[in-house]
Specification:
371 residues, six-stranded mixed β-sheet, 12 helices
């Protein structure tokens, strides 16, 4: 069997998981690397160093199911291929995930978002390998995409399957942890591209300001300026039923205010973030919060990453803090800086995609939330 025949692509594994077919995903990375990000439902054997050192018996004691294929995974795929060779010698139907977890960062799945009372249907499009959440919403035959983080063809295909034409593309802010595909999607679909009003982006777009409304079919999106994570950040409120909060408010955390924040280390932005969050808390408690990221791998279970504002308020203790305490608390909990964030921001401000493999630039967990 050739090396190609012992491999499986990200698209093939994604389809298997999407269909719920039996498969054992065997992650052979170091425990610290797995803690950063993993494939949902995968099994872990910490044998990376042993395989690299040439050991041939590390899998002998492992009890693995014989009745389903095994997909071995490491960071880039090379070391997992050694495990595949050993497993095949023992009679297992084993293959290696091509490109490993770096390539898996582009894997995605979807979930329908229930929104009783809204004129729109909403589909959450999730990069399970990265935690990025984007949204396709349709009403009256038209559709809008918020925070496109995948190849534009994904959104065009999903919209076509639903009987929608994409007329509107929006970003909630200038992203720091993934490349925005919004400009390219708007060009492909012939749609209007909306961004929050700011002077950072150097390409043509239609600027949105606080209180302005976008109509999609018979649904309405109202822009709320919610600065803090970035100065320009906008939350889009759909028919008074849901809020697409980007990186301002998550399900159990808030946006980090320090990236590219200047000499004060994010203090001014943290103060603005407190004001923005207090404004969001004026929405009805039953408002569904639809954030821009998940802090954990997203299972292929069709369940949206979402919660009511009331539930988010209970989970997020920082929302109950006064301004001064909030600022000190948030600045004291800043997570590590996202990998390559300066390069990603520069590309997003220019409206350009990475000339090479985007997985090289975007690999790794997102780190935009402060819990």
């Amino acid at each position: 069997m050739t090396t190609t025949e012992r491999a499986i692509s990200v698209a093939q594994l994604r389809d298997i998981l999407e269909r719920g077919e039996p498969v054992t995903v065997l992650d052979i990375r170091k425990a610290a690397d797995r803690a950063e990000w993993a494939i949902p439902g995968s099994r872990h054997l910490d044998i990376y160093d042993a395989l690299k050192a040439g050991a041939t018996s590390e899998l002998d004691s492992a009890t693995l199911p014989q009745d389903r294929p095994i997909v071995t995974v490491c960071g880039m795929g090379q070391t997992a291929a050694l495990a595949t060779v050993q497993l095949r010698a023992r009679g297992y139907d084993a293959r290696t995930l091509t490109g490993g977890m770096s390539a898996w960062s582009l894997a995605w799945n979807t979930a329908a978002v229930p929104l009783p009372g809204s004129a729109a249907r909403v589909l959450q499009v999730r990069r399970t390998g990265k935690g990025c959440l984007s949204y396709l919403l349709g009403a009256g035959g038209q559709a809008a995409v918020i925070d496109a983080a995948l190849d534009p063809d994904v959104y065009v295909t999903l919209a076509h399957q639903a009987g929608w034409a994409i007329t509107t593309v929006l970003d909630t802010h200038i992203h720091a942890d993934h490349l925005s595909r919004s400009r390219r999607l708007a060009q492909l679909a012939g749609a209007t591209l909306y961004l929050p009003a700011q002077e950072r982006a150097t390409f043509p777009f239609t600027a949105l300001r606080d209180g302005e409304t976008i109509v999609v079919g018979n649904a309405r999106l109202v822009a709320w300026h919610t600065p803090g994570h970035t100065p320009e950040a906008i939350t889009y409120v759909l028919d008074g039923r849901a809020a697409f909060t980007g990186d301002t408010l998550f399900l159990a955390g808030v946006g980090r205010p320090d990236l590219e924040a200047g000499a004060d280390g994010g203090r001014a932005r943290a103060t603005a973030l407190h004001t923005s969050l207090q404004r969001l808390l004026t929405l009805p408690p039953e408002t569904l919060i639809l954030p821009g990221h998940s802090s954990a791998p997203i299972a292929f279970n069709g369940e949206p990453v979402a919660a009511t504002l009331a539930a988010v308020r209970e989970r997020t203790s920082a929302l109950a803090l006064d301004r001064e305490t909030f600022v000190e608390t948030i600045l004291g909990r800043i997570p590590p800086t996202p990998p390559n964030h300066a390069r990603i921001i520069a590309l997003n401000e220019a409206g350009e995609l990475f000339a090479g493999d985007p997985a090289e630039l975007e690999a790794g967990a997102n780190r935009c939330a402060v819990a």
